[in-house]
Amino acid sequence: MDIISQLQEQVNTIAAITFNAFGTLQRDAPPVQLSPNYPEPPATTTATDDATAFPEQPKQLSAGLVKAAKQFDALVAALPLSEGGEEAQLKRIAELQAENDVIGQELQKQLEAAEKELKQVQELFGQAADNCLNMKKPE
């Protein structure tokens, strides 16, 4: 797998971990009273194992997120440095655009030739169909 694909995969991993972390925290966090003006939130009826494991979950989730972010940083550091700086990159872009224009013109010529040939084939097919319809059956 190339480096760009690995970076994309790592970004997806970070997004999944973040999504799961927020979802887990939202699902498992104990209710908290937002203001003294609001009533006390209802007590949750969870098993004691879940209640004691909750303080560890954010630590585990954040550790996973940090690990994924470090892997992403390592992949970014492994990217090859650009050679020649910005001017060389702009020159290469101009060369590629010129090459693209030449190929585009060739493709346009091929498309026009193909359309002309298609029109000829359609005319010949029409003539052949007309000839077949105008033929008399042998007596």
What does this structure look like?
Helix 1 (3-28) packs antiparallel against helix 3 (56-77). The longest helix has 50 residues, at 85-134. This protein has 4 helices and no strands. The mean pLDDT is 86. It has 2 domains: 1-40 and 51-80, no CATH class; 84-138. The chain has 139 residues and is an all-alpha fold. The protein starts with a helix and ends in a 5-residue tail after the last helix. It is 75% helix and 0% strand.
Task: Give me the secondary-structure topology.
Blueprint lengths: L2 H26 L19 H6 L2 H22 L7 H50 L5
Q: How many β-strand stretches? A: 0
Largest sheet: none
Helicity level, as a percent range?
over 70%
| H/E topology pattern | HHHH
The proportion of strand residues reads under 5%
Mean pLDDT: 86
User: What ranges have pLDDT less than 50 throughout 5 or more consecutive residues?
Assistant: none
End-to-end gap: 73 Å
The rough form would be described as elongated
Q: How many whole angstroms does the radius of gyration measure?
A: 34 Å
Coiled coil: 93-131
Subcellular location: Nucleus
Family: Belongs to the Mediator complex subunit 21 family.
Keywords: Activator, Coiled coil, Nucleus, Transcription, Transcription regulation
